[in-house]
């Protein structure tokens, strides 16, 4: 029997697990994006703010325009702890700290994005927002895994962003920024981008940096080698190969 509804060649059905959510452990201008691991039940919404525009012409029927949209989501996350410290994974520590705080301490900077098992990520399914946090401990029985139920409610409008997902496994790293501007010899800079896990080298103007730390897949902290002031190329190399050079203007 022929399916009466044909699909384009190469079409595939999306999976519920093909989404990522990161929390910023750094600052807004110099983000340190940490993926939230072991999550389930990702349920994003974009609640509308409406304005009544009804007139006599509507004959008593409601008529509202959408004047703005926010962001909200809910999910569950497993309470994995580090044996060496007893702390939860850093992203869950950040979430729970915000859930107990007030004022600016109760706000998180998060981003979300399509993260397919196969194929190209949807470039339109990604965003960033400030959110306030509610968290409650679930699975409180006598022999259950520790799980937290988390609700994030946006503050202000969300920001559409370029999808940062570059695929599973080894991928060529991509650089997006080096901060702070005009750092000099021996000073530390933060390199942001994607695909940094397993980085084997970082060079500035062709010179290897004396020391660098891969914080996560999107962040490297590096010490600038000795060199001349001015515009120089920065390159990160992983087992998948070197990144395209990003030009950085360094100080004296």
Automatic annotation (TrEMBL):
InterPro entries reported in the protein's UniProt record: Ig-like_fold (IPR013783), Ig_E-set (IPR014756), IPT_dom (IPR002909)
Organism: Microbacterium dauci
Sequence ranges assigned to domain IPT/TIG in this UniProt record: 173-240
Annotated signal peptide: none
UniProt protein name: IPT/TIG domain-containing protein
Pfam hit, one: TIG
Residue stretches spanning the membrane: none
């Amino acid at each position: 029997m022929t399916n009466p509804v044909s699909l384009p060649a190469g079409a595939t059905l999306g999976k519920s697990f093909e989404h990522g959510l990161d929390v910023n452990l750094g600052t807004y201008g110099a983000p340190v994006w940490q993926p939230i691991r072991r999550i389930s039940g990702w349920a994003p919404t974009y609640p509308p703010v409406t304005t009544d525009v009804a007139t006599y012409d509507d004959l008593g029927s409601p008529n509202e325009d959408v004047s703005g949209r926010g962001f909200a989501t809910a999910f569950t996350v497993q309470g994995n702890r580090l044996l060496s410290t007893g702390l939860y994974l850093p992203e869950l520590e950040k979430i729970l700290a915000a859930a107990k705080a007030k004022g600016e301490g109760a706000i998180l900077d998060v981003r979300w994005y399509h993260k397919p098992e196969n194929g190209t990520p949807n470039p339109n399914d990604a965003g960033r927002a400030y959110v306030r946090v509610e968290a409650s401990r679930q699975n409180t029985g006598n022999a259950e895994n520790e799980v937290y139920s988390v609700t994030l409610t946006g503050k202000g409008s969300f920001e559409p962003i370029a999808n940062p997902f570059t695929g599973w496994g080894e991928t060529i790293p991509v650089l997006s920024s080096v901060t702070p501007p005009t750092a000099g010899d021996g000073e530390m800079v933060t390199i942001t981008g994607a695909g940094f896990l397993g980085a084997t080298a970082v060079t500035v103007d062709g010179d290897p940096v004396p020391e660098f730390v891969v914080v996560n897949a999107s962040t490297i902290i590096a010490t600038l080698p000795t060199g001349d002031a001015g515009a120089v190329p920065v390159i990160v190399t992983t087992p998948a190969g070197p990144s395209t050079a990003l030009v950085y203007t360094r100080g004296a």
